C-alpha cells in the first residue's frame, strides 16, 4: 500500500501544473521523490517489476524532453492507480482457487507470466490481469485458409500443410548457418531458408532434428520471391511440426493456421508468449467479462455477448466474427463515454439559473443597432441560440466555434450585455494579456458610448489601478470585467456576476473555468474557440456542452492567397510591394524544441538579419515569449499604430491578435507547425477588405510534408483543415498537450469510428431520457461522475 498518497497526489498535480519542469520541492526534486518511492516499493513488494519500470523511467526524467516527461508522469499515475486497485495475490496452488476480479490481480500472477515477463508487460503499460485482457491486437493476419503450394501468390499471407521432403544445413561464407528445408504437398514443393548464427556440428544436428524427414509440417507466413533462386518461398514463416498431439489440438493453436492476432510488443517479449498469456487470462477470468450495455440496446443493435466479443477480438474464428466483435467493443466503449457526457448534461440542467430576458428596446438591441456593421447570418444564429438559452432557468453551457476572423468578440459582448441589461455583471476571460487588452479596448470603444463601465484585470498591472478596478467591481459600479487569469484571483469579488465568456477555452483548465463559475450568482458560461474542432472530437471532448458554429466570415473579406515555397526571393518582393502600399507584414518563426528561450534567440537573430541585410529602410518590431508582459503589449500596440512595418515573432502572436492593416503573413519552417496552427497564424491577416497573402516557407522535400502543407494552399476553411489535421495527426496531437480532456480510449478510434460514435451518442442521450440509471447498477457505477476525479488531476 502506498502511504501518504495525498502528498504524492499533490506532487503530481504541481508537476503537471508547472508543465513538467521536474519541480524542486522542499527536500528534493520531483523525479528524485518518485525514484525514492519506486525504490522503496520495489524492495518492500518483493521486487515487483512495475516499480523497476518506474524507477528506470524516472532515472531518465531529468534528461527527458517535455513530452517524454508527460508520458512518464502518466505512467506514474497508471502504476499508482493499479497499486490502489490490486488487492492481494491469489494463491494459485490452492485447489479450490476461485479467480478474483482481474483488475485486482497483478499481471505477474497470470498463468504463464511470472516476474520476468511481467517486467516486460509492465513496460507496455500492462499491470493487472485485466490490462492484459484489454491489450487488444494492433491487427490480425489471416492464416486461416490453407493454400496449395502450387497456388501460392507473391505477397499473400497464408498457411500451407505438407511434409518435410529434405533438410540441408551448411555454414555460409559470411559466417551464418543456413538451413534449407524442402516442403512438399500434393501440388508441388516449396524451398524454405532459415538463417541462424554460425553453428558447430552439434548445433547443426540439433537444428536438423527440428525438421524430421517425412514429418507433417504446417507453415504460416507471407509469400515472397527468393532473391537468389527467384522462386517463391515464405518470409520468416511460423511453423509447427504436426505430431499426433498437435493434430488434435490444432484448433487451440494460437499462432498459426488461423486468424492470428498481432500485438505491439517490446524488445525481448516474444509475441507467442504474449498470446499465450492473454489466452490464459481470458480463460481464467472469463466470468468477470459481463455485458454492460443494457440488453435492450444490445439486442436492437445486434451486439455480441461481451465474453465472446473479447475472445473473438483476440482470437477470432472468422474475419466476420472479428468485425462483429470490434463493433461490439467499440460501441460499448463509446456508449459509456457518451453516457458520462449525458449524465453531466443532466447534472448541469438540474442547476438553476436566473432567467435573463431581453427587451425590444433594451441594451442588447440598442447595442446591435449601434454597431458600424450588420451581424453576419452566422453571428445572428449564434446570438439567437445564446439568448434563447439565457431566457430559461437551466444554465447556458455552450461552446462557440468560429473560424479566425468570424467575429466572435461581438457575440461574446452581446451575451455579457444580456447580463448587464438584467442588472448583472459580465466577465470576459482571455488566455494572454495581449488578448485581454485587445478585448478590453474593443469593449470600451463599443460600450462607453452606451454609458457602461468596463474594467481590466491583468497580472502585470499596477497596484493602484487594480485596487480601483477591484473596488468598482465589488460595489457594482463596473458592468463588465475583462482579464486574464488575474480575474480568478481570490481577492477579485463580483457584486453580482451573471454571465461569463471564456475565450480560447482550451488554454484554460476545467478547474480555472470552474473557479470563475463559482464567483457567479447564475452560472451562465459561454466558451469560445477559434480552432474549429471536428464534430466527432467535439462530441468526445465537449460532449457535455451545446455547440454553436459561426460558419461564415463578415462580408467583403477576400480569401487569403496562400503559397508554398522553399526560397525567400519572391517573399521579399511581396513584402516590399505590400509595405510600400502602406500595409504591414508578420514573419513568424516556430518554437524550437519547445523552448521559448531558444526560439526567442532565433527570432532575435533573424530580425537583426532582416533589418541589416534585406530591409534597412523599414522599421522592424520583435515579439517573443521572453519579453515582459508590458513590453509585449507595447510592441503589439506599436505595430497596431503602424510604428513598425514588419513584426518578427515567435508563435506568441498565434492567438486572436487583430491588426486589420497587416496583409502579409510569412511563416518560416512551416513544416514544424500543425495544420490547425498554421491556419490560426494565417488568420492574423485577411481581417479587412484588403487582399491578404500567406507564404509558407519550407525546405522539406518529403512527399508527406508537401501534401500536408499544400492543403493550406487549397482551402481557407478552418473546418476542412481541422478535419484533415485530425486525420493526419490523430486526436491527441490535434488537441495538443495543453488541452487534455481526451478520454483514454482502448479500442475506438474517433476518426475511423465516427459513425459508431454518432450512434452511441444518440443511444446514450435516449437512454438517460427514458431510464432511471439506478435500475442499472453496473452501468451507473462505470459511468459514475466520480470517475473524473481521483488521480485524474
Ligand atoms: P474572432 O472570431 O477571430 O475573434 P474578431 O471578433 O476579432 O474575430 O473579429 C474580427 C474583425 O471583424 C474585428 O475587427 C471585428 O470588429 C470585425 N467584425 C466582426 N463582425 C463583423 C461583421 N458582422 N461585419 C464586419 N466586420 C465584423
Ligand atoms: Mg478572437
Principal-axes shape call: globular
Please bin the fraction of helical residues: 40-55%
Strand order across the biggest sheet? Answer: 10-11-9-12-13-8-14
Bound molecules: adenosine-5'-diphosphate, magnesium ion
Class based on secondary structure composition and strand pairing:
alpha/beta
- Span of the ends, CA to CA: 21 Å
Radius of gyration: 32 Å
Unreliable parts:
244-252, 786-793
Number of strand segments: 20
- Content of β-strand: 15-25%
The helix tally amounts to: 27
Short key terms for the protein model shown above:
alpha/beta; 7-stranded parallel beta sheet; 20 strands; globular; binds magnesium ion
Brief synopsis:
By secondary structure, the chain is α/β, with parallel strands linked by helices. Helices cover 42% and strands 17% of the residues. β10, α17 and β11 form a beta-alpha-beta unit.
Structure description:
This protein is an alpha/beta fold and 793 residues long. The chain is 42% helix and 17% strand. The protein has 27 helices and 20 strands. Strands 10-11-9-12-13-8-14 form a seven-stranded parallel β-sheet, with helices on both faces. A six-stranded parallel β-sheet has the order 15-20-19-16-18-17, with helices on both faces. The protein has a five-stranded antiparallel β-sheet with strand order 4-3-2-5-6. Strand 17, helix 22 and strand 18 form a beta-alpha-beta unit. The protein is globular, with a radius of gyration of 32 Å. It starts with a helix and ends in an 11-residue tail after the last helix. 40% of the residues are buried. The model is unreliable at 244-252 and 786-793 (pLDDT under 50). Bound molecules: adenosine-5'-diphosphate and magnesium ion (MG). Adenosine-5'-diphosphate (ADP) binds at residues 373, 375-376, 379, 402, 404-410, 530, 554, 656, 658, 660, 687. Magnesium ion (MG) is lined by residues 408-409, 503, 530, 656.
Amino acid at each position: 500500500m502506498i502511504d501518504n498518497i495525498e502528498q504524492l497526489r499533490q506532487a503530481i498535480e504541481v508537476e503537471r501544473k508547472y508543465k513538467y519542469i521536474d519541480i524542486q520541492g522542499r527536500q528534493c526534486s520531483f523525479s528524485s521523490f518518485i525514484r525514492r518511492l519506486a525504490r522503496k516499493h520495489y524492495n518492500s513488494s518483493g521486487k515487483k517489476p512495475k516499480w523497476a519500470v518506474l524507477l528506470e523511467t524516472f532515472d531518465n526524467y531529468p534528461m527527458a524532453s517535455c513530452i517524454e516527461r508527460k508520458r512518464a508522469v502518466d505512467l506514474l499515475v497508471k502504476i499508482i492507480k493499479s497499486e490502489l486497485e490490486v488487492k492481494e495475490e491469489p494463491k494459485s496452488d490452492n485447489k479450490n482457487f476461485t479467480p478474483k476480479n482481474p483488475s485486482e490481480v497483478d499481471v505477474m500472477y497470470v498463468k504463464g507470466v511470472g516476474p520476468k515477463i511481467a517486467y516486460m508487460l509492465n513496460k507496455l503499460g500492462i499491470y493487472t490481469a485485466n490490462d492484459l485482457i484489454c491489450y487488444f491486437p494492433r491487427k490480425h493476419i489471416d492464416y486461416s485458409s490453407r493454400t496449395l503450394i502450387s497456388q501460392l501468390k507473391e505477397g499473400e499471407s497464408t498457411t500451407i500443410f505438407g511434409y518435410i521432403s529434405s533438410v540441408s544445413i551448411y555454414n555460409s561464407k559470411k559466417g551464418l548457418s543456413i538451413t534449407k528445408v524442402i516442403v512438399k504437398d500434393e501440388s508441388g514443393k516449396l524451398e524454405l531458408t532459415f538463417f541462424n548464427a554460425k553453428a558447430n556440428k552439434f548445433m547443426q544436428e540439433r537444428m536438423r532434428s527440428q525438421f524430421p524427414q517425412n514429418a507433417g509440417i504446417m507453415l504460416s507466413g507471407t509469400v515472397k520471391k527468393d532473391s537468389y533462386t527467384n522462386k517463391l518461398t515464405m518470409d520468416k514463416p511460423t511453423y509447427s511440426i504436426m505430431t499426433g498431439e498437435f493434430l488434435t489440438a490444432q484448433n487451440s493453436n494460437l499462432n498459426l493456421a488461423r486468424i492470428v492476432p498481432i500485438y505491439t510488443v517490446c524488445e525481448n517479449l516474444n509475441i507467442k508468449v504474449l498470446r499465450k498469456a492473454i489466452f490464459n487470462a481470458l480463460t481464467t477470468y472469463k466470468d468477470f467479462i459481463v455485458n454492460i450495455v443494457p440488453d435492450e440496446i444490445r439486442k436492437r443493435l445486434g451486439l455480441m455477448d461481451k465474453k465472446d466479443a473479447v475472445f473473438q477480438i483476440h482470437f477470432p474464428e472468422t474475419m466476420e466474427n472479428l468485425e462483429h466483435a470490434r463493433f461490439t467493443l467499440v460501441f460499448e466503449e463509446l456508449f459509456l463515454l457518451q453516457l458520462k457526457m449525458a449524465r453531466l448534461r443532466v447534472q448541469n440542467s438540474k442547476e438553476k439559473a436566473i432567467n435573463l430576458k431581453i427587451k425590444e428596446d433594451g441594451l442588447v438591441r440598442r447595442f446591435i443597432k449601434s454597431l458600424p456593421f450588420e451581424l453576419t447570418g452566422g453571428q445572428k444564429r449564434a446570438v439567437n441560440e445564446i439568448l434563447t438559452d439565457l431566457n430559461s432557468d437551466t444554465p447556458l453551457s455552450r461552446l462557440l466555434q468560429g473560424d479566425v476572423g468570424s467575429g466572435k468578440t461581438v457575440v461574446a459582448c452581446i451575451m455579457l450585455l444580456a447580463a448587464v441589461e438584467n442588472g448583472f455583471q459580465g466577465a470576459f476571460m482571455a488566455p494572454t494579456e495581449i488578448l485581454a487588452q485587445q478585448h478590453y479596448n474593443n469593449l470600451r470603444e463599443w460600450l462607453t458610448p452606451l454609458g457602461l463601465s468596463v474594467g481590466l484585470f491583468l497580472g502585470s498591472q499596477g497596484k493602484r489601478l487594480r485596487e480601483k478596478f477591484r473596488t468598482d467591481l465589488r460595489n457594482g459600479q463596473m458592468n463588465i470585467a475583462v482579464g486574464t487569469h488575474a480575474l480568478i484571483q481570490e481577492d477579485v469579488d463580483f457584486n453580482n456576476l451573471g454571465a461569463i465568456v471564456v475565450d480560447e477555452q482550451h488554454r484554460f483548465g476545467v478547474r480555472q473555468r470552474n473557479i470563475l463559475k463559482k464567483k457567479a450568482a447564475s452560472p451562465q458560461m459561454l466558451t469560445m474557440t477559434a480552432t474549429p474542432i471536428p464534430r466527432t472530437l467535439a462530441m468526445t471532448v465537449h460532449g457535455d456542452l451545446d455547440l454553436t458554429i459561426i460558419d461564415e466570415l463578415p462580408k467583403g473579406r477576400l480569401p487569403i492567397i496562400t503559397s508554398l515555397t522553399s526560397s525567400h526571393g519572391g517573399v521579399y518582393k511581396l513584402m516590399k510591394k505590400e509595405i510600400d502600399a502602406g500595409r504591414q507584414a508578420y514573419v513568424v518563426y516556430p518554437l524550437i524544441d519547445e523552448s521559448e528561450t531558444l526560439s526567442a534567440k532565433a527570432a532575435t537573430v533573424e530580425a537583426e538579419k532582416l533589418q541589416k541585410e534585406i530591409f534597412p529602410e523599414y522599421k522592424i518590431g520583435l515579439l517573443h515569449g521572453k519579453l515582459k508582459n508590458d513590453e509585449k503589449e507595447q510592441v503589439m500596440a506599436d505595430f497596431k499604430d503602424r510604428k513598425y512595418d514588419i513584426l518578427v515573432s515567435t508563435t506568441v502572436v498565434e492567438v486572436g491578435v487583430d491588426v486589420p492593416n497587416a496583409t502579409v503573413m510569412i511563416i518560416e519552417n512551416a513544416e514544424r507547425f500543425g495544420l490547425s496552427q498554421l491556419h490560426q497564424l494565417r488568420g492574423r491577416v485577411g481581417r479587412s477588405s484588403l487582399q491578404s497573402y500567406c507564404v509558407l516557407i519550407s525546405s522539406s522535400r518529403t512527399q508527406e510534408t508537401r501534401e500536408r502543407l499544400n492543403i493550406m494552399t487549397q482551402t481557407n476553411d478552418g473546418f476542412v483543415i481541422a478535419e484533415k489535421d485530425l486525420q493526419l495527426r490523430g486526436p491527441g496531437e490535434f488537441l495538443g498537450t495543453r488541452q487534455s480532456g481526451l478520454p483514454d480510449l482502448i479500442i475506438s478510434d474517433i476518426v475511423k469510428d465516427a459513425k459508431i460514435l454518432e450512434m452511441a451518442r444518440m443511444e446514450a442521450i435516449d437512454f438517460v431520457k427514458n431510464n432511471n440509471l439506478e435500475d442499472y447498477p453496473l452501468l451507473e457505477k462505470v459511468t459514475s461522475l466520480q470517475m473524473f476525479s481521483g488521480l485524474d488531476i
